[in-house]
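Exercise 7b. Backbone tokens:
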């Protein structure tokens, strides 16, 4: 099915073999109660200057093999109550300058083997109450200048086998109440000059086999009430020039087999009332010129075999 770029309407259609929407200057889908795109083999939205999906109660895109949104200048999804993207083989959003998902109550991306977001200048997910990314085999977010996830009540990334966040200029996750990354086999955050996680009430990274944060110039985690990294086999923070963990109420790293912080020029842990590192087999902090742990009310390191 091909559409004319002058005036086109898509209504009351359930199944498409191939759906291509290309060459539009302005494409607007708005004020629809239920928008469902299901069981389509290939869904491509390419070379559109402005794509806006606004004020829809529920937006569901499910059971499609390939979803590609490429070379779009502005992609905006505004004020949907429920946004579900589920059961994809390949979900790719490459080469988009601005991708904005704003003021959505529920955003769910589930059961997709490959989720790739690459070469986007600005990726913003803001003011969403629930953001869930679950049961995806690989999640890759690479080569984007700015990734901002702000003012979200719940951000959950569940059961991805591979989670890679690489080659960012600015990666910021501010003002989120709950940030959870659960049961991921491989979590890698690499080659990002600035990684900032600030003003989050709960940050939990649990049951991940490999967690690597490497080659980032500055890593700052500040003003969060609870930071928990639990039951991870390998936690490695490699070659950061500046690593700052400051202004925590509770900072806990329990039950991790290997915790390595290697070749960091400046490591500062400051102004945290409670700092607990417990039940870790190997804790290594090596080759760091400056190591400062200051203004903490209680510092507990217990039941570790090698420190």
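Sequence design result:
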């Amino acid at each position: 099915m091909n559409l004319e770029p002058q005036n086109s309407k898509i209504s009351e259609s359930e199944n498409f073999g191939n759906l291509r929407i290309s060459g539009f200057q302005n494409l607007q889908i708005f004020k629809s109660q239920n928008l469902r795109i299901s069981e389509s083999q290939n869904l491509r939205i390419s070379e559109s200057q402005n794509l806006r999906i606004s004020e829809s109660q529920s937006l569901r895109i499910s059971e499609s093999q390939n979803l590609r949104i490429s070379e779009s200048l502005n992609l905006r999804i505004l004020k949907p109550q429920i946004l579900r993207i589920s059961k994809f083989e390949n979900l790719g959003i490459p080469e988009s300058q601005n991708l904005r998902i704003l003021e959505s109550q529920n955003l769910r991306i589930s059961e997709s083997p490959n989720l790739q977001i690459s070469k986007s200048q600005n990726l913003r997910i803001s003011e969403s109450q629930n953001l869930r990314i679950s049961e995806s085999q690989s999640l890759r977010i690479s080569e984007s200048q700015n990734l901002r996830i702000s003012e979200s009540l719940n951000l959950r990334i569940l059961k991805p086998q591979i989670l890679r966040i690489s080659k960012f200029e600015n990666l910021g996750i501010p003002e989120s109440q709950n940030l959870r990354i659960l049961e991921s086999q491989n979590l890698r955050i690499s080659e990002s000059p600035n990684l900032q996680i600030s003003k989050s009430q709960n940050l939990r990274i649990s049951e991940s086999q490999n967690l690597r944060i490497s080659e980032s110039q500055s890593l700052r985690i500040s003003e969060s009430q609870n930071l928990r990294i639990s039951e991870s086999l390998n936690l490695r923070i490699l070659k950061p020039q500046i690593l700052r963990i400051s202004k925590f109420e509770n900072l806990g790293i329990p039950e991790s087999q290997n915790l390595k912080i290697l070749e960091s020029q400046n490591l500062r842990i400051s102004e945290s009332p409670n700092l607990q590192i417990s039940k870790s087999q190997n804790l290594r902090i090596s080759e760091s010129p400056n190591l400062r742990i200051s203004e903490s009310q209680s510092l507990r390191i217990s039941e570790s075999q090698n420190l």
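Instructor comment: Confidence is low (pLDDT under 50) at residues 1-14. The chain has one domain: 50-302.
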